[in-house]
Fold this sequence. Notes:
The protein has 643 residues and is an alpha/beta fold. Helix content is 53%, strand content 12%.
Amino acid sequence: MTRAKQDRLLGLLLRDGGWVTAATLADQLGVTARSVRSYVTSVNGRVSGGQAVESGPQGYRAGVEAGAALQTSPGDGGSPRDRLHTLVTRLLDAPDGLDVYAVADEMFVSAATVESDLARVRSLLGGTELILDRQGAQVRLRGTEMAQRRLLSRLVHDEMDAGAYDTAALRRALGEQSAVLPSLAPFKAALVAQLVDFGYYVNEYGMSDVLTHVAIAADRVARQRGLDAEGLPEPVAAQLRVANAIETLAREHLGVDLGPADSRHLASVVLTRVVAPGIADETRAPLDPEVEGAVREAVGAAASEFLVEIHDEDFVLRLALHVQNLRLRARDKAWSRNPLTRSLKSTYPMIFEVAVFIASELSQRLNIPLHDDEIAYIAMHVGGQLERSRRSDERLTATIICPGYYELHELLRSSVARSLGQSIEVVRVETRVDPDWADIDTDLVLTTIDAPPGAPVQPERVVRIQPFLTPADVDRIQVVAVRARRTRRLAKLRIELESYFRPDAFVHGIDPTLGEEGTIRLLGGLLRDAGVIDDAYLERAVAREGMSSTAFTDALAVPHAIGMTAAHTAIAVGIADPSIPWGDARVQVVALVAFSENDRAAFQTVFEQFVEVFNERESAQRIVRRATSLPSFLDELVAVIDG
């Protein structure tokens, strides 16, 4: 039983918010239902009263103390994770090294256990430029101070759930005695206020990165392990201004005198992670022509490939400024975490896919690797631009039925427009007490009178309201509108999907040991044998998966290649029971999608709304349980779509 699996269970329950069956949790964790029960018992043992996870006939859900349990670490420090933190901290504080047998005695474990923990330390060192040097029983870390801080940062980030700020993770990495942690909150508030005064836009989503670096720097300086200022380049005006502010605030709130190297380093962290100058801000670093050119080309290619309206001058410049900072982070191997990565991917898969395409183009043009969290920031830029240019034809149409009495119907129409005008367009007003119900073909019918029994109108389209619109009326209309909008989207999806699935490209019972690449090659091989795609498309699908996991929900992965080069659009489906590890998730349905150039207009409909179906756990589980063949899969899919 591992602490990591217990924490993963808690995270799943907290994110869901409702009841989750043991079978579903077991599948998402890759364990048995019996193990889930053991995890729940252990988690409840972390808090007094045992209310971290509630149990019931419907399964499990997060209790009132779930958050506290997630932040609680074992008191004896004997878990593998706690030993790892202790060992790394001691190695960093011992420049002359540690004796393996002495450490084993002090930690009350065997030497073999310490050796196993040292192997885990080695696995953390990739990309940090640190070396674990071993001479007999003596081990030590060799590398620069910056490399050692990079290791501390990795230790903290690896424990943070989706990049969320976690003081407990910082405390474990720096040690319980670290004096700077209690003062980080007032330091952060003062820093944000100062940056706003400087005229910057502050990205709160990246603030956990900054606070992690500040805590590590302050702690290391307090231990007389500050950075060396020798050979530092002359700072630009913006860096110097932020560095001076950080130095002053660190002295005031953290009780630490940062030297010029540390203050400038932290200023660079701030300037490349959490602030954005205005496009015309003269204090920002000049925009690199190479970066601007690469962004323009990438955005233009994405606009053409996906038929989206993102080729806007201000958007290009904002994204270019972001990419310029991103390039600096890549140079220092200091990636920025994004707590919205998972939700952006599952809620806006189409936007995320455009971001992946742009990231791929930028990676080739600027020779920088891009990870999921960095792609998510690009997705936020893309989503913001698409929101600005969103067309009004996404609104639902509505008919108001309000029997005439003076200007009552006009007052009602203006109230609806004022409260719901962004999502609903009133195209017709009926003032008769006996309207022709059969002739009303709008998405919604907002009526102040009841429809007569047997009226030829779908009840789910009708919302009974008062002549003078009340807040309760607005709430009911919004609920029905959401349902109607979803029904309209999924009706289109049903028509599209029925023409894309192939009877010879359906696999039930995929071997979980195949993994991501093996499953992609299995399903892709079926489409290749049918003449839909070639080997090049299959290789690009594998490469696309390597850029960013296509597990868009907890149940579904949609692997595909960048570029719509299939002979015609087709979908190969695989069902896995038990689930397949996919990225940092586990999935039970894999839909390999091959798109052709002629069907690019269908890309958004099929891609985004197919993901939407599987974003609902009950729907996904129903399909997995009953879909043993393509006909049964389509039957269940259509049943879910039809509600």
